[in-house]
Amino acid sequence: MSGAAPHLRLEGLTRHYGGAPAPAVDAVSLDLPRGALLALLGPSGCGKTTTLRMIAGLERPDGGRILVGGQDVTALPPHRRQMGVVFQSYALFPHMTAAGNAAFGLEMRGLGRAERARRAQAALEMVGLGALAGRRPRQLSGGQQQRVALARALAIEPELLLLDEPLSALDAKLREGVRDEIRALQQRLGTTTVFVTHDQTEALAMADLVAVMDAGRVEQLAPPEEIFERPATRFVATFVGRAARLAGRLEPGGVFRCGGGLALRSASGLAPGPAEAFLRPHRVRLLAPAEAPPPGFDNLLDATLARRTYTGEVIALETETAAGPVMAELHAGTDEAWRGLAPGAPLRLAFRAADLAVFPAP
Amino acid sequence: MRPSWMLRLFAAFGLLVLLAPGALVLVVSFSAGDFLTFPPPGFSLRWYEALFTHAGLMSALATSALLAAAVSALALLVGAPAAYAIARLDFPGRGVLATLLMAPLLLPTLVLGLGLLLVLQPLGLVATWPGLMLGHSLVAIPFAVRIMTTAFAAVPKELEAAAWTLGATPLRAALRVTLPNAAPGAIAAGVLTFLVSFDETVISLFLVGPRLTTLPVEMFRYAERTTDPLIAALAMSLIVFALLMVAVVERLMGFTRAMGRD
Amino acid sequence: MIGWLLAAPALAVLALAFLWPMAGLFRISLNRTTETGAMETALTTESYGKLLGDEFIRELVWNTLVLAGSSAAIAVALALPVALMVRAASPRWRGPLALMAIAPLLVSGTARLIGWMAILGDNGLINALLMGLGLRETPWPLINNWTGVRIGLVESLMPYAVLVLIAGLGRLDPRLEEAAATLGAGRVRTFFRVTLPLAAPALLAAWLLALVLGISAFITPRLMGGGRVFVLATEIYDQALEYVNWPAASALAMLLLGGLVLLMLLRAAVAKFAGGRA
């Protein structure tokens, strides 16, 4: 793949709605290699759906370009773009059967009746709905409708597959299964895909690349692990996963000075100044009050347990330290020794310098 | 909360007021007597026979039916594209357009009828088909636009967007996806505009003449002169016809929704 | 742009059927009626002057307002329980109930008035009952007078009031009344302290719509009044078709329009106020 042109390239893509003070999408640029799945992740109103609709041609950008396979498609109307779109509402045609829906794009391409029927049936079988081809959308369950929408989008053998929150209308129980099915199908077909979601678990589990968006801008574009473990901006650190936030100052040498004059080591190379540090609970090691830290754990904090919340697989701990509140967690099963811990108990928290993510104070 | 007996009682009285006239028309139309007396001295079908052999009323009925069919066809033809534009397209002045198209419904039909008389009389268009069609279009078109707008707006925009992404041009998407899904609403609009024209009285009063007259006008003039069970039989026939039409509309798109203002 | 293009045919027909006649109406209201009753082209406000100075017309306006105002109020009062019932009914009954209340809209007005004649006439249902029970010796005159007109008008305005109230009440959360009940308010107190104040904007909107329709009603005053009840609408009709005095009819129609436009502006203001509060 090295050296190959990106399959999808966005260059400074901008959309400004009349009347709104700030652009909905603000100079978004990114490259997506052929066959990859990109998740656009962000809170509602961050511009992720607008970006997707501009790629589909349903929304006209005010600035920037969209290139597919090196071709500029910015000015093309949606019906000439070859994009397979799965809408949040699925947007299945209620007056047509599942087969009619799947065949619609082929009909628009002028394919003969027999060829249409064959390929529509193949698309429905691909999503496991071959037996329900004669049903109308309202005779199908939510999960089945979702698959028909996917089959309809894939039947035209699209350049790109665009999915707008395709799982949000499904029951929580169904969601995980459908998520894995979509990912497996996408990998088997090798279809370059853009997937819009506000659910970080979905984005992290499915994507090759995640673009975290906020206020119309891409905050970070990286593989899921990097997004989670090495957030590039303060927003990514707060939006993805949970983290304790410590206020303080960054001093030369990566020393983070926080409440109580405490000095914590970080790997930050930022210029000195007011700063905020983020610490994820799963990076915090619990020690007994006098216990020595394991090698590599440079930072030690004395803490008092303030609250414990049982959530099933993990027990979330909130502790008070001189630097401020810090979260930690216990894993049922592996952390049995700590289960009896009660609020008020003294603790010692240890973590690596690299686990403290420091950003300039806003 | 379950409605209290007091609310039930008051509501029942309200409905009684609304439904009583229809019920009484039903009873007296089968009267065997010569006047609108209650209780009727006996029951018979004689007034229905008299009605269906009344040449003047029957020829007015034919005129009204033909006129209503032509008017509702015209209203749908010019109303549907306008309704599609209002429900679907985003363009400068859309709100103004919607208001303009609804404006005639806001004004009293008496004034509209008078205005039409004043400009059509000098042209010799009173008591002619073009004159009556124009007058009825005035109320039928806004009506058709309103119902069709509701019908088009009820078809999700995403459906059309989905059709575009699948390769349909905007025109093909409108014809293959939006129109079929709005079809029940279009039929409902046709039925209701037919009924609106068929029952239109006040504008017609200004526009008819001895050469060409409509059923509601003849009925009104008849009732002005005299009231006998013949007119009750006619009223009953019209009520039954209207209720049939309402049932059709109810089945197609929900009558309350069709008549609803926003 | 394509929007206006799609609407062009409809606009063209309406321009022909609406703008042109309205312009004609205004123009003719400025013409003069000569001593012999013929119309003479002119640019004068003579017809308006005559109307405003006419004692009979002033009485007519007053009578029309009283009739329409009272009928609208009664119609709204009768419509409120119906609308509340539609709202409170189970989903299975909601549709049929609303349908019963609104269906009269599409039944010919003349047909319904004939029903009222059979109820209110000297030989009608009510007088048959009253005299049969010995409560009255002679028939109670309920038609061919203001009473008959008012009853007919109330009934014809009710479906409109129900429609406005259903829409207005639909926006009120039924849980507010349930909350009042849990706080110890009885049904009557809940109605007067919670439901009625919340419904006030909808009630006002319904009354104003009924008022506008009542002021311009023609068929009901004509048929139920038996030629003995005179309101603005009947006068316009008579001036235009009986006396063929077009300038007078047009001027009267313009005055009616002016009044109605004022009321409609008021209605829009109320709707805006109610919308702003909701």
Automatic annotation (TrEMBL), chain A:
Keywords recorded for this protein, A-Z: ATP-binding, Nucleotide-binding, Transport
Biological process annotations from GO: quaternary ammonium group transport
Gene Ontology cellular component terms for the protein in this record: ATP-binding cassette (ABC) transporter complex
Pfam families: ABC_tran (PF00005), TOBE_2 (PF08402)
InterPro entries: AAA+_ATPase (IPR003593), ABC_SmlMolc_Importer (IPR050093), ABC_transporter-like_ATP-bd (IPR003439), ABC_transporter-like_CS (IPR017871), Mo/tungstate-bd_C_term_dom (IPR008995), P-loop_NTPase (IPR027417), Transp-assoc_OB_typ2 (IPR013611)
GO MF assignments: ATP binding; ATP hydrolysis activity; transmembrane transporter activity
Segments forming domain ABC transporter: 8-240
Protein name per UniProt: ABC transporter ATP-binding protein
Organism: Teichococcus coralli
From TrEMBL, chain B:
Pfam families in the record: BPD_transp_1
This protein's UniProt keywords: Cell inner membrane, Cell membrane, Membrane, Transmembrane, Transmembrane helix, Transport
Transmembrane segments: 57-84, 96-120, 126-145, 186-209, 229-249
Entry-linked CDD domains: TM_PBP2
PANTHER family, alphabetized: INNER MEMBRANE ABC TRANSPORTER PERMEASE PROTEIN YDCV
Family statement: Belongs to the binding-protein-dependent transport system permease family.
Protein's recorded name: ABC transporter permease subunit
Lineage: Bacteria, Pseudomonadati, Pseudomonadota, Alphaproteobacteria, Acetobacterales
Automatic annotation (TrEMBL), chain C:
Regions that span the bilayer: 62-85, 97-119, 149-170, 191-219, 248-270
Chief place where the protein resides: membrane
Highest taxon in the source lineage: Bacteria
CDD domains listed in its UniProt record: TM_PBP2
Cellular localization per UniProt: Cell membrane
Protein family per UniProt: Belongs to the binding-protein-dependent transport system permease family. CysTW subfamily.
Protein name: ABC transporter permease
Source species of the chain: Teichococcus coralli
Top-level taxonomy: Bacteria, Pseudomonadati, Pseudomonadota, Alphaproteobacteria, Acetobacterales
